[in-house]
Amino acid sequence: MDLFTPLLNAIPAVMTFPNLLAMVGGVLAGIIVGSLPGLTATMSIAVLLPLTFAMDPLVALGMMAGIYNGAMYGGAIPAILLRIPGTPAAIVTTFDGYPLAQQGKAGYALQIALLSSAFGGMMSAVAMMILAPPLSLVTLAFGPPEVFWVGIFGMAAVSVFLGDDLPKGLLAALLGLFVGMIGLDPVMSTDRFTFGALELESGIDIVVLMVGLYAIPPCIDMAEETFRKAKTGQKLEFAPFMQTVREIPRFFKVWSWAYIYGIFVGLLPGASGSFVSFLAYERAKKMSKDPQSFGKGNPEGVAASEFGNNADNAAALIPTVTLGIPGSSVAAVIMGGLLVHGLQPGPDLFRNSADIIYGFMIQMFLTSLILIPLGGSFATNLFAQVLRIPRPLLIGLILCLSIVGAYCVQNSIFDVWLMFGFGLLGYVMSKTGLPLAPVALGVILGPLIESNLRLSLLLDVRNEHILFTRPICMVLIALLVLTTVFPPLWKRFSARRKKAQDAA
Amino acid sequence: MKRYMLPIVAAGMMFSTAAFAQYPEKDITVIVPYGAGGGSDIMVRTVAPYIEKYLDGDVSVVVENRTGASGIVGWQALHDAKPDGYTIGIITTPSIVTKPIEGKAKFTWQDFTLIANMVTDPAALNVKKGSDFKNVTDLVEYAKANPRVVTMATGNFGGDDHLAGLQLEALTGAEFTFVPFPGAAARNATMGGHVAVGSFNLGEAVNYQESVDILGIMADKRSDIDPNIPTLKEQGFDIIASSQRGFAGPKGMPEEAVKALSDALKQALADPEFQQDAKDQGVVLDFADQKAFTEGLAAFDKNMRAIWDKTPWLK
Predict the structure, then answer these.
(1) Which residues does UniProt assign to the signal peptide (chain B) (predicted)?
(2) Is the Cβ of A432 closer than 8 Å to some Cβ of chain B?
(3) Between the CA of residue B23 and those of B11, B19, B118, B252, what are the distances in Å?
(4) Which domain holds residue B100?
């Protein structure tokens, strides 16, 4: 078959020793970087980029693929063990991962996260191998009006993350939307809430916010605990690995939805992958027969989140390699890596450098596959020791990492202070029972929705109400109504009917 | 006698090192005011090994990304650095000229020591392949007949793409609706047919001619990177607009450092291997020494101030 010839041709180029070494090294580095709050895949690939100049292009790309896939799993490790997401995409993993860890099933949660990440990454790579050129049409078909509705879709998912206390949840979501508004406005470039600070003009980076909100409050908590009583280390209860593997069929349904969301959002430039896990989690909870167990340690929550954030990986690279439009910030840095090696994205890339681009897709697949042994044996066992670290030491460690991480985003000390500011805010929020996740979702989606709304209004030069009349928009609106308006109505209707029957 | 020897020898050595000190003796830091992996960053990282090769002396060129506020954060850092020739940076037009005009920066481009220009990427008008607009005249005529109906994708308001569109409006009296997309999204919107025309640089368009038609570039003459693309000038619209990237240092940099760096850059840009790298990345090379670079910026500054006084592009 024509489709597979270039793939098969690329295999020998991938299976060389330096290449395999680069992939293994990349995955390990990725897991470590991902697991350190504040250090992200984007950052580490950007830092390593200059080192790859002298390398063979495939070796360089293999390393980047490894870091990318590794980091997306790595983020789950502290999310599960400490409720501190290592990457923004792992925020959702904390919901069920941490409760599982508290029930003494941290090992089991890590295994679920690992398998979900690995399969998510592999399936995403398969989509890229088979469907990259046709899927890139999706990127082109989605203009500002369509992306606006996708953003609204995400915002509708927020309901699941608001927690039990609705006003508090909404307050947190509004806070997120507010933080997302800081900086230059997306259309007129006017300063908003910057108070004349140059550093705030480009807005607040999600990494700075996340590190502050999620990493600092646990440190304060731990410090309080340490003063009250010295706690001995917990132990991880590892289920036999094969037993977890046998559970895979249970997650098929959750994974499939996470897959669809992951590929789709990955294809849209500007819609960051972090929100895939929110969408996937919401769907998993809504589909579940036992939605009450979500947030209390349901492994399906971990599976949805982790599969989702890895399913976005290769998909975000599809518009990058076919159109030169990066689907995420990591993809943007990887595109930089391609350019440095003289590989200009676009149709020519597939014609002139087929071995390299198909080789890269194979690497995206293989690095997800080797995530299983590497993550399973080495990294997870190593990081599980985190729980044994004496608390005062752990606090210092997290604080150091947080400072480094916040600083690295823009090499700016301002961001470090900002991070501590958010840390205090997060501490106050956790003491007053305000949920953190809606803040993150607001920051991720607010700017996306706003800029696409305003661009759509500008584009509507003939007053055609393009937000409602373009065909894809109409489909999206219909889906939105079907998924958000009908289920509660249906529930009420069937409850009433049941009541009527009971009465009769 | 002997006891005077040591100070004399020491003084002599100090004198000799001062006299024979050759730039460069230590590593050179290049401040890039934009993120790693972006256009400016890649350009600097690609040229860095060639600068190292052509400079006398075994030193490294270290790239430091200082991002934020459309370049101003990085430029402020460059402005405040010690002018010893070991901290230089990238300046880009139009921002280095327009940001001070907008009152957003505490410096002007005259507060830097210009070293040399490296890239001049002409502004270009691009349409989706197969668009009804076959040339710039078609576009302008339609836009004049239907004011504000033609949507034009640009980068940020006040950026080079937007200013190029404003110049076209000023020259022809046509009216466009400008739609500011972030990053490379303007090209995406043009390729996807979400806008009628896209204003983005030749370097961002030249390698995508399977999906976009380039109606014309706003340059004095056709570009070496693809001589088949006409200029606006030859279609009767005399507009020159571009985005430039060059090297500069803090004010008061020593002459010999400027000269050494400028010569090394000139040699690097003449290196066929580097030229191929640049072409693959869609970079339009255009070397200009300190004098020519300064004159170009001065003319541009005058032009922009005239526009700003009449119709400020930001409100």
Answers:
(1) 1-21
(2) no
(3) 21, 11, 21, 15
(4) 25-120+243-310
Q: Which stretch of DSSP H or E encloses residue A381?
A: helix A380-384
Q: Which domain holds residue A401?
A: 5-456
Q: Is B67 on the interface with A (CB under 8 A)?
A: yes
d(CA A260, CA B276): 41
pLDDT in tens, A228-246: 654 444 556 666 778 888 8
* Chains A, B: CB pairs < 8 Å: 141
Structural domains in chain A (count): 2
Residue-wise DSSP of B68-81: -GGGHHHHHHHHHS
Which domain-ending residue is among B220, B240, B260? B240
Residue A332: list chain B partners with CB under 8 A: 37-38
Does the beta carbon of B156 lie under 8 angstroms from any beta carbon of chain A? yes
* Whether A446 and A381 share a structural domain: yes
Residue B10 resides in a domain: no
Which of B73, B99, B161 to mutate to test binding with chain A, by most A CBs within 10 Å of its CB?
Answer: B73
The one-letter amino acid at B208:
Y
Same domain, B153 and B253: no
B residues 121-150 closer than 8 Å to A (CB)? 148-150
**Domain count within chain B:** 2
Q: pLDDT of B84-100, one tens digit each?
A: 889 999 999 888 998 88
What is the least distance, in Å, from the CA of A138 to any CA of chain B? 9
Closest CA to A261 of A309, A302, A300: A309
**What CATH code is carried by the domain that includes residue B291?**
3.40.190.150
* Predicted-assembly ipTM surpassing the 0.85 threshold: no
Same domain, B116 and B247: yes
B68 Cβ under 8 Å from any chain A Cβ: yes
pTM: 0.83
